[in-house]
Amino acid sequence: MTTPGPREKPAVTLLESRFTRNDMPRLRLLVEQYAGREGLPDPRRGEFVVAMDAVAVNAVEEPGDAGTLVLQRSDSHLLCRIQDLGHDCGDLTATDPDPGPGPIGRPAGHGLWLAGRLTDDITIDSGPRGVMVTLAARLPHRA
Predict the structure, then answer these.
(1) Please, what are the domains in the chain?
(2) Which residues belong to any copy of the Histidine kinase/HSP90-like ATPase domain (predicted)?
(3) Dihedral, CA atoms, 73, 135, 43, 141, nearest 10 degrees?
């Protein structure tokens, strides 16, 4: 999905930003504005922003307290890549893709689960530079 198909052009970067906890309101507003400009309709646009927020909050709560966000548009999807700037968290890709929201009352563990429910696709990659989560929302077909 992130690799262009035979007729699909490479993704175009719309927004690239380093962020901390203090930047979250601005980041939510920017992602909402770009998503609207690119044709993601309500209520999907709001769901995409909530998913982005859930993952970005995870990034600033982990070691490093900062992250980067890259918002891109392919021919058919809006992609949001969020990378924490912390340490290697192991191979998160080997975990159950649908672990559930975690125990009730647990303060963490719901962000990725929620993001997976609110987007069309979520991928998680972990390595020495931190964890990168890519969220994708299908865009309506343009005539």
Answers:
(1) 12-87+110-138 (3.30.565.10)
(2) 23-135
(3) 40
Q: Which residues contact 10 (CB under 8 A, 6 or more apart)?
A: 4, 74
What is the mean pLDDT, run by run of 10 residues, along the chain of 143 residues? 62 96 96 97 97 94 83 95 72 45 54 94 89 96 70
**Residues ≥6 apart with Cβ < 8 Å to 5:** none
Q: 76-88: per-residue pLDDT in tens?
A: 999 999 998 865 4
Q: Based on the number of CB atoms within 10 Å of its own CB, is 72 exposed (0-12), middle (13-18) or buried (19 or more)?
A: buried
- Is the pTM of the predicted complex or chain greater than 0.70? yes
Secondary structure (H, E, C), 14-78: EEEEEECHHHHHHHHHHHHHHHHHCCCCCCHHHHHHHHHHHHHHHHHHCCCCCEEEEEEECCCEE
